[in-house]
Each structure stands twice: as structure tokens, then as C-alpha cells.
Design brief:
Blueprint (H helix, E strand, L loop, with lengths): L5 H15 L3 E5 L2 E6 L4 E7 L3 E5 H11 L3 H16 L5 E5 L4 H9 L15 H14 L12
Parallel strand pairs: 4-5
Antiparallel strand pairs: 1-2, 2-3, 3-4
Length: about 150
């Protein structure tokens, strides 16, 4: 695999930011989901152990748009996610199954929400910021974690 042009990589990361900024972050125990609740679509699921799974539809869209191999997209998404959320991702993989049924389960579940004393393995700093945003806004969006310049 040849090195990706840095300008193309920045463009892909900006596109990720644009596409995912309005999506909601939903904690469910040891997992953090990036979801579009209204459309019942999932994009990314990251466990506290650092396993990232991403929707194959997302990968296909970026593959078609930027002529990327799945492996290259996986690395870019991993880097983008780590930079935005300061959550360490050890491995990243595409998931081909439709997880629409999980969205209903996650949204109906009263358990699995985070508190400062129940972080399910996520870092203190990340959960603190998440809970502060949730307290003020009721919903936590991906864009809430973007650094304002």
C-alpha cells in the first residue's frame, strides 16, 4: 500500500467531520455508538477495550467517493476518531451486518448509561466531558467534541 497523499487524507477527515457531526453519541455500557436515531442508522461502535467497528455502508460510500481500499479507510477513521474523542482505538474493522435492531435495544435500555462512578472502562476525562454536555444539551452530538478555534 502506498502512502496516502496528505491533502487527500485531510479532505477525507473533513468529509468525515461533515458527515458525522450531527450524529448522536450514545453510550451503552462498555460501548459508545455513533447513531442517527431518526433514520435508525449506525456508523461507528467503539468499545472501552479499543475495538472499533464501522458500518460497511459508510466504508462503501467513502470507497466509492475517494477510491479507497477498506483497509486505508479503516486507518483514517481510526485516526480521526482517536483525535476527536481521545479514546484509544487498538483495532478497527468493518461490520457487514445490519444492526438496526440494536438501535432499538440501546434506546430502550435504561441500563448502560454512564455516571462518573460507572464509566464502564472509559476514561474519566472523556466521560466527564460527555456528562457535562448531556447535562446542558440533553443530547450529545459528535460535533460537541470538536475543538472550537
Amino acid at each position: 500500500m502506498s502512502e496516502l497523499n496528505p491533502k487527500l487524507k485531510r479532505h477525507i477527515m473533513r468529509k468525515l467531520e461533515e458527515d458525522l457531526s450531527s450524529k448522536e453519541l450514545i453510550p451503552n455500557g462498555r460501548n459508545l455508538w455513533v447513531l442517527d436515531i431518526e433514520k435508525k442508522e449506525w456508523f461507528v461502535n467503539v468499545s472501552c477495550n479499543g475495538l472499533m467497528e464501522f458500518n460497511s455502508k459508510l466504508a462503501k460510500d467513502y470507497s466509492n467517493l475517494f477510491c479507497l481500499e477498506s483497509k486505508v479507510f479503516s486507518k483514517i477513521l481510526k485516526e480521526w476518531f482517536e483525535n476527536k474523542f481521545t479514546i484509544r482505538v487498538n483495532s478497527s474493522q468493518r461490520r457487514t451486518s445490519d444492526l438496526t435492531y440494536m438501535i432499538d435495544v440501546i434506546l430502550q435500555s435504561k441500563k448502560g448509561g454512564w455516571e462518573m462512578n460507572e464509566r464502564f472502562g472509559f476514561s474519566y476525562g472523556f466521560v466527564k466531558k460527555f456528562l457535562e454536555i448531556k447535562k446542558n444539551n440533553k443530547r450529545v452530538l459528535v460535533e460537541d467534541f470538536f475543538i472550537s478555534l
